[in-house]
Write a structure and sequence with these properties.
Layout lengths: L6 H7 L3 E7 L1 H15 L6 H5 L10 E5 L13 E6 L3 E7 L6 H11 L6 E4 L13 H19 L5 E5 L24 H18 L3 E3 L1 H5 L15 H19 L18 H6 L10 H15 L6 H5 L59 H12 L29 H15 L6
Parallel strand pairs: 1-4, 1-5, 5-6, 6-7
Antiparallel strand pairs: 2-3, 3-4
Length: about 425
Amino acid sequence: MSDIFLAEDVQKVLHNKFVVILGDSVQRAIYKDLVLLVQENTYLKDKQLRTKGEFYFMNDELLEGGQKGVMTNGTNYREVRQYHSAFHLIRFYFLTRCYGEYMEMILKDFQSEPKPDLIIMNSCLWDITRYGSSSVSEYKKNLITLYKRFREVLNEGCLCIWNTTMPIASNARGGFLIPEIEFMNDTLRLDIMEANFFARQVAVKYDYDILDLHYYFRRQLHRRASDGVHWDMTAHRRISNLIMTHVCEAWGLTLPNRIKNLNTEDTKDTDDNNNSGEKTQPKIPLLTQTKKALIHRAQKKPYYTGYDMVNGPLCSPAYQMSVKPSPMLKNVGPPLPLLRNVRNEFQMRPDEPINFADDDFTFLNQPSRHSNLGSGYQQQWTGTGPRVRSNRNPVRSQSHRYMAYDRPNMDNLRCQRMREEKRNELDMDWRF
């Protein structure tokens, strides 16, 4: 959960702080909402969310790129914005890749004064879709290199928060989805979850923070825009509240406490509980609590898949144990690869994988309501086992690498022919 922050609260938290936000268009909207919230208690307008590269927005300034350069949907698009007042400095860099030559230029800026106090970053959608056949492997290497460079460049007191990529629709459309890669829509929302889990592993390894926005918004899809990628003004205000709550807890600041009984570790007064004579339960690590809750629920709900395991309890800073799994989980699609039994493409190896050997997760291997679909998806992601052959698709070739499962109303041969023509035109192979 998050507290509710008003303009005066954000002004106090970010007083004399240098905030840097890096990422794609979703991160740009986070920057705009934060700049707006520093000045007044209003929501962003739809036009402000849709506009990019404008010269001015709410007393900020376009420093580089945007309308000063070339407005394009290519990977070379640049946009640097900055808002500054007497006591606040907020800057935004548009990224299409988490690490590269342009990121090195940004890191050089960080080495000069003023040095950033807070970095909020995400980069995934462009990384895994617009950089050729080896985009996933390069994304993993770049992410590790990025955190190594952060350790070398950033001050010890700098708070670095990685926002996980938010859920996208199965028919998403946006600037990064050019016609040549529209076929990736079939499984891109599942690839994002794998990338989020890998990013979480890397962030934890290098002792940096992660804010799992995918988990918080997986059941608030009504706030998503019509293009299936971006989000409305209420969603971005909630993101700002989540970020500010995380920052206050990390810096040891007092929350506004506009939400009563906010269940955060920093706001619990254990001394009062002890003095009142109430028996307090011993503190159990959050990871152990969530795994026990998953086991308990899975015994009652056989169809409970690994969907929330990859996105939710095991990756999130907070989790409400009293919330029951939604019946909509039956319709989320095939189950994701399990964390212990499946070695997927985003799993870190051989660097210290998470050890679940002390817990029994055998119940997760029992057939679910999507078992006829999930097995094919798991085998394709992991590259293990024989290739699936179903009645609807008797001939399955390597060109169907992106087919998560067979859909009854899809002409697989026609899709195969279209994809082969696109690859021949571009002389690229988009398979992982």
